[in-house]
TrEMBL record, chains A, B:
<dbReference type="InterPro" id="IPR003200">
    <property type="entry name" value="Nict_dMeBzImd_PRibTrfase"/>
</dbReference>
<dbReference type="InterPro" id="IPR036087">
    <property type="entry name" value="Nict_dMeBzImd_PRibTrfase_sf"/>
</dbReference>
<protein>
    <submittedName>
        <fullName>TIGR00303 family protein</fullName>
    </submittedName>
</protein>
<dbReference type="InterPro" id="IPR002805">
    <property type="entry name" value="Nict_dMeBzImd_PRibTrfase_arc"/>
</dbReference>
<dbReference type="Pfam" id="PF02277">
    <property type="entry name" value="DBI_PRT"/>
</dbReference>
<dbReference type="GO" id="GO:0008939">
    <property type="term" value="F:nicotinate-nucleotide-dimethylbenzimidazole phosphoribosyltransferase activity"/>
</dbReference>
Length: 353, 353
């Protein structure tokens, strides 16, 4: 049920039956306010998506709006998969990172880590993130944080995050065109290209590494790259639960390491995503991972909605939505806990009933 | 260095060298706004005390004001002791419970558990707490929470909390007059008695257990009693780091158990306080604990400022301040980690230099 994309299968085998903390990095970038750039949420209220995703994963309900996030065509957030797995094989803990939310999630009693951040700017106008300080915040957090579990599963919800990820990878010099996923089956390439071109037009030859990141990145990418650098020495396994955005986190870290020559050992880190990302012909996760200077373990969960007759879930199998809110990593965790495709499918269907 | 007040010494011996999570329950009650009721903070800004205590323990600095909380005569908050211990023998984690703060603490990256609470009302006008819901919130949190450490040390910062604790104990029928501590060496009994009489005048014969609690209690007392009930079955040791307020938490729980006949095993729970509370002739911690229907382990840290020549610290030894922000429990934890009185004294003195 768990397939290897790159690296070794023993890393993930060792996590069988082990308990996990699910940490969810939540952030808003004003890039998502550009009309048509993302379908990760309700038009006009897309800024609420990470807030609602956090609430739904933690509590099974949304408190800051009356309905779960879905695309304009009604496809529900992949948070349903993460929540379904949590109900069937509960995480030891769920913790949230507020990396600049417009509206903080209402999740009574859950551990929320705040970093004093507001939403970042739109990359078509220069996101104006102080990337050095943010990266160091991530690193300091990684140096100080230990999960209460055998390993950490780290997911994200950042609307328009694939656009900021693509811009970031390109700005850092990676040949990443056509390699980034999208919440759309057929990504709106004209809007996305206009935004990308505008974003890249703000870059100058004199920009430092952090200047570049601060113009075209988002808080999740920069903070998480710093976090991995700070946390990797602690030795507990970290599974990045996501697709091309999490690959971009690794690319950011990789670029930082090239620039500083700091030592880094990725052997305690892996990436886990969905089959929908793995099989997406419009993106190339494996290609992104192969650009790294260090070897990385990466896996996907061999899960689809073939067992479901629900028309909205069938759209996942047609390439809509694909990943987010740690869905792929949660499915991998679920399989490691002995869950089966049928029970996960039924649990997700129950949310839509 | 650790002395037994009630119960067995083997409980605390078993915690030697074990790592701990320090959790701090922070709350405001409008009772503290009554002039002269407490000296736990700067007059006119006493509502900031728990916020600043949380910030100082976590970060060593205060962000919501320019100075640490102190009494009008300049005695610094007992948070200095908790912080000194954390610097010398770091806790595995510090987590904050926001149980209704006027101003949330600015503690980037720390785990904060929010419960959607505002400060509670003043008990002289009926605190109007929905005590049943709050108790159940505490219980649910206890059932779901596991520390990432061998044991949990649970402290509090609630200005005027000894007044609400005394009112609560009396309202629940305990013969608790003269048994509760105060942040003053010579408690302002006339103000306190006026407030107590007013508070108790709101009680009616028809009041249920929760009606009573909701009129004269505070959020920390009620939530923590529920928390202990939910958490005690998990089996990890819980050390209530505090004096008579934490004793009142146990009295609240004890009254609940009388009322419901629910089973409860206190063998995983203890209380740890300061020598200043233990030796206080104006209160009687041991007497409060002996009112419980279950046996409880209780200890104090044999620590004073005899090694210091600092005039403000000498006031602790004269009975000012005495306890709070988990100071006594932190000192006990420090001794269990092998710290000595001299190094703790020096660290506290360094904050005042």
């Amino acid at each position: 049920m768990i397939q290897t994309i790159t690296g070794r299968s023993d890393f993930i085998e060792r996590l069988k039956g082990k308990n996990a903390t699910f940490m969810l990095a939540l952030s808003n970038t004003d890039t998502a306010l550009i009309a048509g750039i993302t379908q990760a949420g309700i038009p006009g209220q897309i800024y609420l998506t990470p807030t609602l995703d956090g609430e739904f994963v933690c509590t099974g309900a949304v408190h800051s709006l009356t309905q779960i996030p879905k695309t304009p065509t009604g496809i529900p957030t992949p948070a349903l998969l993460s929540r379904a797995v949590h109900l069937l094989a509960p995480f030891n803990a769920i913790e949230l990172l507020n990396l600049g939310l417009t509206i903080p999630p209402k999740v009574e009693g859950f551990c929320v880590h705040d970093f004093g951040l507001s939403p970042s700017g739109s990359i078509d106008q220069n996101a104006q993130i102080d990337a050095r300080i943010l990266f160091e915040k991530g690193r300091a957090f990684g140096e100080n944080y230990t999960p209460k579990s055998d390993y950490l599963l780290l997911g994200e919800s950042v609307p328009s995050g694939t656009t900021t990820a693509l811009a970031t990878a390109l700005a850092l010099g990676y040949e990443a065109h056509e390699k980034f996923s999208s919440s759309f089956a057929h990504a709106p390439s004209s809007i996305k290209h206009t935004v990308l071109n505008k974003a890249l037009s703000h870059l100058k030859k004199s920009d430092t590494f952090f200047d570049t990141l601060g113009k075209v990145g988002d808080h999740m990418l920069i903070f998480t790259a710093g976090f991995l650098l700070g946390a990797h020495r602690k030795g507990y396994p970290i599974v990045l639960a996501g697709g091309t955005q999490m690959a971009c986190v690794l690319l950011v870290l990789n670029a930082f390491l090239r620039y500083t020559n700091e030592p880094f050992d990725a052997s305690s880190i892996a990436l886990a995503t969905t089959k929908w990302v793995h099989e997406d012909t419009n993106s190339d996760l494996k290609g992104l991972l192969e650009m790294l200077d260090f070897p990385i373990n990466a896996y996907y969960a061999n899960f689809d909605f073939a067992l479901s007759s629900h028309p909205l879930l069938a759209l996942y199998d047609k390439g809509e939505a694909k990943e987010g809110v740690g869905a792929g990593g949660c499915l991998v965790y679920g399989f490691l806990q002995g869950l089966e495709k049928a029970s996960i499918t039924q649990k997700v269907e129950a949310f839509l009933a």
